[in-house]
Amino acid sequence: MTADIEGGYAQSADGVAGTVRAVLAAGAVGINIEDGPRPAEEHLRRIAAARATADAEGVPLFVNARTDVFLAGIGPEAGRLEETLKRAAACVAAGADGIFVPGVTDADTVAALARGIDAPLNVMTGPGAPSTAEFARLGVARISAGSSIAQAAHALVRDAARELLTEGTCTTVADGYDYGELNALLGEGR
């Protein structure tokens, strides 16, 4: 199991150690830790703290460093590939095992990232993105759906409620599991 610990759920890199110990105790063997709006040096300290904590605990934790250059549109578009490669190299040097670059689906850019990063590349899929087979051909090692599945489920709830309140009908949910199927699915193996 991989835990998305966002920026480390701590005010500082030192606090990340406590978060990592907690996710290890919960059984996680991997984490995603993102750079977000914090300075690059702070992100690197957080990665190093996560790596040092896992090593001290004797757990081969997979640290997947996320950089949001493409997702957040950081810097001029023409320089985003170079900036991402620079950040990725620094993250690997700080102890990251993999690099997560959400927000990029262009085949040429993905291939350049895969060639230029000395670690497994993780990208985010979604509507309009290449297929998993195409991503694999481009050199991607891991595909994430991010929050898109949950967002789609919430949109279905919104649409069904809107239909019920405005039309008085409930056809939006016609393709859902029936009660017995859902109970059987959730009860398997118990």
Biggest sheet strand order reads 1-2-3-4-5-6
Q: What's the tally of helices?
A: 7
Query: Spans of 5+ residues with little confidence (pLDDT < 50)?
Result: none
Give the structural class: alpha/beta
Q: How far is it from the N-terminal to the C-terminal residue, by CA? A: 20 Å
Account of the protein in words:
The protein is an alpha/beta fold and 190 residues long. The protein is built from seven helices and six strands; from the N terminus they run βαβαβαβαβαβαα. The chain has a six-stranded parallel β-sheet, covered by helices on one side. The chain is globular, with a radius of gyration of 20 Å. The two termini are 20 Å apart. The relative contact order is 0.09. The model has no long low-confidence stretch (mean pLDDT 93).
Question: What brief labels describe this structure?
Answer:
single chain; 190 residues; alpha/beta; 6 strands
